[in-house]
Design brief:
Layout (H helix, E strand, L loop, with lengths): L9 H8 L4 H23 L17 H13 L10 H18 L18 H16 L6 H16 L18 H16 L6 H13 L18 H12 L7 H11 L7 H4 L6 H15 L3 H21 L12 H13 L11
Length: about 350
């Protein structure tokens, strides 16, 4: 009989053979997993507050720094306080420096490096604005108010006629849903932090996302016809929820579409680690957590979160990271946010 269990981690044998130990053993292991991941990110931070090497595809990228910052905040640390307060402060320094540098360019307010290898500055701007908005009420940095106001101004000025945004910090002919969901979530965060955001900007962005929904409930990449996508659909649902939308056909049909992937959280089914797998899980966990405030949808949260959390445990590397060909730092930060969302340590995660 021993050959039946060959290659199965001891932890999972314990859980299978001792059902009464499942909850306590899993919780302890999950906490160890989180702590290893946080330590990995802290070790990856550069002196200037950025993450990764300059030779990495998204090394020194503002989006990666912001995502790592969200993970540290989600763990319970604050700017200047807690186990990772110093790391959070350095991230704030780095993003403020990028914003100040933009004042000498035509893209005033941009919180991203236009010379970065990843070359997706509006992604960087969206995640950076979101992170700094979460820090705004916790930090005594006076520069944050001006930086965030300029960030808002840039977003308003670059919204295109469709109501969305794309990679470049300028009005483009055609927007896409992935950048637009990121930007819209950032706008909701700065508005919640007390800043004034033009209602028209949010309304047009929300309309754009809704118009990208297909008849099967999933969301396509652009307004033009295209297939639904798992990751972008999760991002679209979360961006609508972050604006307070929890009911209606867009949400219900979108969650139903996503539920078709719940039968197996294995990467071979829902995505490939190293590509968009962790991106998709990050947004799906956030979407399901927010939707779980509704008892009708709470079962999805309970079922999927337990399955995917097990998947996170077995895909974590010995150094505490989660591998990604795009950005291991970003993937690791997204996993940590997903693992920590239910602790509700930051407004972004409040239901």
């Amino acid at each position: 009989m021993n050959h039946l269990f060959q290659g199965i981690p001891v932890l999972f044998l314990i859980l299978i053979l001792n059902p009464t130990l499942q909850n306590s053993a899993y919780s302890q292991t999950q906490e160890e997993c989180i702590q290893r991941g946080l330590k990995f990110l802290a070790q990856r931070q550069n002196e200037d507050g950025s993450f990764g090497r300059s030779t990495d595809l998204f090394g020194h990228d503002s989006a990666v720094a912001a995502l790592c910052g969200l993970a540290f905040l989600a763990s319970g640390s604050l700017p200047g306080h807690g186990d990772y307060g110093e790391q959070i402060d350095r991230i704030i320094d780095y993003l403020i420096a990028l914003a100040e540098k933009s004042r000498t360019t035509e893209y005033v307010g941009l919180i991203a490096d236009l010379q970065g290898r990843g070359n997706k500055p509006m992604y960087g701007h969206g995640f950076s604005t979101l992170f700094l908005a979460e820090c705004y009420g916790m930090s005594s940095r006076p520069e944050l108010k001006e930086v965030l106001q300029e960030a808002i101004n840039l977003i308003v000025q670059t919204q295109n006629s469709e109501g969305g945004w794309r990679y470049e910090p300028q009005k483009v002919t055609v927007a896409d849903i992935s950048v637009t969901t990121c930007i819209l979530s950032a706008l909701h965060a700065v508005r919640d932090a007390g800043f004034t955001v033009p209602a028209e900007t949010i309304e047009n962005g929300t309309r754009y996302i809704k118009q990208c929904q297909n008849s099967n409930g999933g969301f396509r990449y652009m307004l033009t016809d295209g297939p639904s996508g798992y990751s972008r659909s999760a991002a679209a649902i979360f961006s609508l929820q972050s604006g307070g939308l929890y009911e209606g056909k867009e949400i219900e049909n979108g969650i139903q579409y996503l539920s078709t992937f719940f039968t197996d959280p294995d990467p071979a089914v829902s995505g490939q680690p190293g590509e968009y797998y962790y991106y998709g899980q990050f947004y799906l966990i956030l979407a399901l957590w927010h939707q779980s405030r509704n008892p009708e949808w709470n079962r999805y949260w309970k079922t999927w979160s337990q399955q995917i959390y097990h998947q996170f445990l077995i895909t974590q590397n010995p150094d505490g990271s989660w591998k990604s060909d795009t950005s291991t730092d970003a993937a690791s930060a997204m996993v940590l946010c997903a693992l920590l969302v239910s602790r509700e340590q930051i407004p972004l995660f409040f239901r």
